[in-house]
Amino acid sequence: MTAIVEKPAAAPAIVKRTVSVKIRRFNPEVDAEPHWQTFQVEALPTDRVLNLLLNIKGYQDGSLTFRRSCAHGVCGSDAMRINGVNRLACKVLVKDMPDEIMIEAIKGLPLEKDLVVDMEPFFEAYRAVKPFLITYGNQPSREHIQSQAERDRFDDTTKCILCAACTSSCPVYWTDNKYVGPAAIVNAHRFIFDSRDEGTEERLEILNDREGVWRCRTTFNCTEACPRGIEITKAIAEVKRALLYRRV
């Protein structure tokens, strides 16, 4: 008998579709105000929004300006507002988006050009909370051992990649850029609850300022915007509690 070998079914063809990409443009050398410009881009379902921007810059308008680096959701440099929500362009799949995608720079920070903002106010607030390990006394003679429970206490807030998606999604920050912002509080939390750190009181005093942690209105925008899934609103509440009871 002759064996019958069935041919494997052909893989379904991946179909491109045309996406309308509407970008809020701004060139300080020629524009008095930002304006919207629309581009038509053919895209695969597996493309990311970052791929669309690279396509536009490479083939349609080389003057388009935006930040990007690793393209894998680690560096945080390509944070922008995509259909009204702060996202990382490298993590948003075209298949999950409608046929029209609106892209603009994150809010609350000075706009420099197109999708690029001045990040210095953001990093100034970050530096202000002393985001580094503080210890006093003599240099330790042995390794400082932490239990798993001690490490777990602040594990969530170690995930921050400083993309500013949380801070620039905060309604308080939009109207008061003196507010230290969610990202700075998250990075303070990471050390406040670290059993090896001895700078807790210093950081709590910094965050007890009128532009500190009490400006948070618990809208959860920051938690929803975080591309790393950090429970930011929870972390802010824990810092508030530490301030009230002066213990961690």
UniProtKB/TrEMBL annotation:
Residues 150-180 form the 4Fe-4S ferredoxin-type domain. Binds 1 [3Fe-4S] cluster. It is an enzyme of class 1 (oxidoreductase). The keyword Oxidoreductase applies. It catalyses: a quinone + succinate = fumarate + a quinol. It holds the Pfam family Fer2_3. Keywords: 2Fe-2S, 3Fe-4S, 4Fe-4S, Iron, Iron-sulfur, Metal-binding, Oxidoreductase, Tricarboxylic acid cycle. Pathway: Carbohydrate metabolism; tricarboxylic acid cycle. Belongs to the succinate dehydrogenase/fumarate reductase iron-sulfur protein family. This is Succinate dehydrogenase iron-sulfur subunit.
